[in-house]
Amino acid sequence: MGDALVTSQRLADGAAIIDVRGELDVTTVSAFRNLLVDTITRERPARVVIDMRNVTFMDSTGIGALVVGYNTAHDVGADFVVRNPSRFVHRQLHITGLTEVFGLPAGAPGASPRNRHATSG
């Protein structure tokens, strides 16, 4: 369907940052999943951070790859979080019930807080 660009870097504190850009779908997910699993198993970081700010589309295969990454990180004792999800990604994770698993707020993306205080005049 589209293209995804995936890059990784290691921070001084031992965290592995994986930056994903573009579309994460059936045609691009294998490269992402392979990099994710390889980075976790080879480098054994203390924390894995997936930055998804620039992901424009993600289908169920992308969600599956995140779950594989989460499980792989759990197996080596690493924390796994998704950071800066695009609105589309956050919505997909919210719908599937995975926001809290990946360290994200549970609320729907773009939802404004409701005014819970009545004002008197």
UniProtKB/TrEMBL annotation:
Family matches, as Pfam families: STAS
In what residue span(s) does the STAS domain sit?
5-103
The family database entries (InterPro entries) matched by this protein are listed as: Anti-sigma_ant (IPR003658), STAS_dom (IPR002645), STAS_dom_sf (IPR036513)
Which family does the entry's similarity section mention?
Belongs to the anti-sigma-factor antagonist family.
State what protein this is by name: Anti-sigma factor antagonist
Organism the protein comes from:
Planosporangium thailandense
> What is the phylogenetic placement of the source species in the record?
Bacteria, Bacillati, Actinomycetota, Actinomycetes, Micromonosporales
